[in-house]
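Teaching note: in complex prediction, the entire set of molecules is handled at once rather than each chain in isolation. The prompt given to students was simply: 'Predict the structure of this complex.' The entities are:
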Amino acid sequence: MSIQVSSELLDGMVLALLKREDMYGYIITNRIAESVSISVSTMYPVLRRLTTAGLLETYDKPFQGRNRRYYRITVAGRMKLVEILKDWEQYKISLDEILYPKNEKHHTREGVK
Amino acid sequence: MTVEEYFSELAQELQPMPAADRDSVLEYYHEYTEDAHITSGDALTVQLGTPKQLAAQLLANQSIKETVTVNETAPTKPHYRQNAHNTWLIVLAVLSLPLSLPLSIAVGAILFAGLIAIAAVAFAVLITLGALVLAGICVTIAGLYIGFTLIFSNLFVGMAYLGFALIGIGLTLLLAPFTYQTTLFFVHATSNFSRYLYTKVTRNKHLSAEGGSQS
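The expected output is the structure of the full assembly:
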């Protein structure tokens, strides 16, 4: 896919993933990379930023004689996710207005009726 | 290149970073490498770029992050300041109430008086026009009546009165449509103005209700 994902959107995707369950870096990277083209090295800064912003917290879990760092969404993170989803919804609508002009007109006409 | 070599080089390149940050970066990528079952430094280079490239990216990100956090905290301060600002404005408004209340009443009274004056002028214009039309009709009827009664005994006086009657007809025909249009205009203007007032008042109410729910 040639469309680049903004960092705000990437934040939202990570928060949405972690809302379902706690994950560690490798899994998060893979899940995100399944749907958008990102390089492996972009994930660390995202996780780091979200953690320092208090939207995520980390805890270590022993795994095969080493530690795995899990990321967990905080209450602030959940609130941020709601905010991002709202923004995304708005953004999607305003983009669709331009990308699908006919379709959108049809929609608003129905809405007026 | 082995994985260990890759990481020692990365650690070297990350020297400008604070030690705690550097440790957490290295830990993260160590863990990633093990989870991804990457066993050679070359495979790591394919995924992450050379240690130098990765380090440059991380360092750049750190500086961006710092500016971002500065930017993120910046807008909250003016917000508080704005609130304080508003509070002071309210205090000021309350303190100036003894002066501003009579002043606002006076301004309101002046506006009201102006409105009354405009309405009075409009009413006067309408009444005048109506009176002129009525006068035209009266002159017509009187002229016709007197003219016809006098025309047989006194031809010229009777014709003069018939002439007055014709003037009356002309005046009425001229002024009647004009009066009608003017009346319509004033009616429209009044309804438009009251509609404008209504929307203004209701919108203000709506806005204040919204503001109340937000705070």
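Point out the following to students. Chain B touches chain A at residues 24-25, 27-29, 31-32, 34-36, 47-49, 54, 57-58, 61, 65, 68-69, 72 (CB under 8 Å). Chain B has two domains: 3-74, 116-214.
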